[in-house]
Design a protein that fits this description.
By secondary structure, the protein is an alpha+beta fold. The protein contains five helices and ten strands. The strands form two sheets. Strands 2, 5, 6, 7, 8, 9 and 10 form a seven-stranded mixed sheet that branches. Strands 1-4-3 form a three-stranded antiparallel sheet, with no helix packed on it. A hairpin with a 5-residue loop joins strand 5 and strand 6. Helix 3 crosses helix 5.
Length: 207
């Protein structure tokens, strides 16, 4: 559910005053994640690597207080439901967006991921959900990337997690992850704690 809140009654009151009218309020941090556990679970269970990573992102988001809030049209809104947005290449060679509601149940999330993205691929129409906090993702797995900085647009102020191809070495598999967020939502320290929380979810996942 999405409800409007008074910024002055939240921890983000100062940030709202400082950054709500900023022409460039987005911040990007990059952290190299150890994703060895996700790759192992993916091979063991058959669940796609990107599906597992998206679930971990949703799990970390649900436990990050600052990401329950989002500025929009000069107002601040609070959410209690989350969805992961993925970019899908459709059957005609174009791209569409697909929102996948987050579920604490990994099997349910994986089922929804496959069903919803397949529908988008075949129908060539984007699929969106209303009333959810959307965490955008963009996976460009054709090549290894060190960093991704997304475009800034006032049409999409949501947090965005982006990555390229993971890097395998003898002892571990790593993946640089770019995290873009609105400064009204969180400060740099909050974003760092989110990325650490995400790494924790990756490490703790059991297949």
């Amino acid at each position: 559910m999405k409800i409007e809140v008074n910024p002055q009654n939240t921890k983000r009151a100062f940030a709202f005053e400082m950054w709500m009218t900023s022409p460039m309020p987005m911040v990007t941090l990059v952290k190299t994640m150890n994703v060895s556990n996700l790759l192992k679970i993916s091979k063991k269970t058959g669940v796609r690597f990107n599906t597992l990573l998206c679930w971990c992102i949703g799990k970390a988001t649900s436990e990050t207080e600052e990401l329950h809030l989002l500025p929009e049209d000069g107002k601040l809104y609070q959410y209690d439901q989350f969805a992961i947005n993925v970019v899908v290449r459709n059957c005609k060679g174009g791209i569409n967006s697909c929102d996948i509601p987050f579920s604490e149940n990994l099997q349910q999330f994986s089922h929804d991921y496959i069903a919803l993205t397949t529908k988008v691929v075949e129908g060539c129409e984007s699929s969106f959900v209303e009333g959810y906090m959307i965490i955008g993702t963009s996976a460009m797995i054709q090549t290894e990337l060190d960093c991704i900085v997304n475009q800034y647009t006032d049409k999409f102020l949501n947090p965005m997690v982006m990555w390229g191809k993971y890097r395998k070495s003898l002892f571990k598999t790593t993946l640089p992850v770019s995290f873009q967020f609105h400064h009204v939502q969180m400060d740099g320290g909050d974003a760092v704690r989110f990325l650490e929380r995400l790494q924790g979810k990756i490490n703790q996942m059991v297949g």
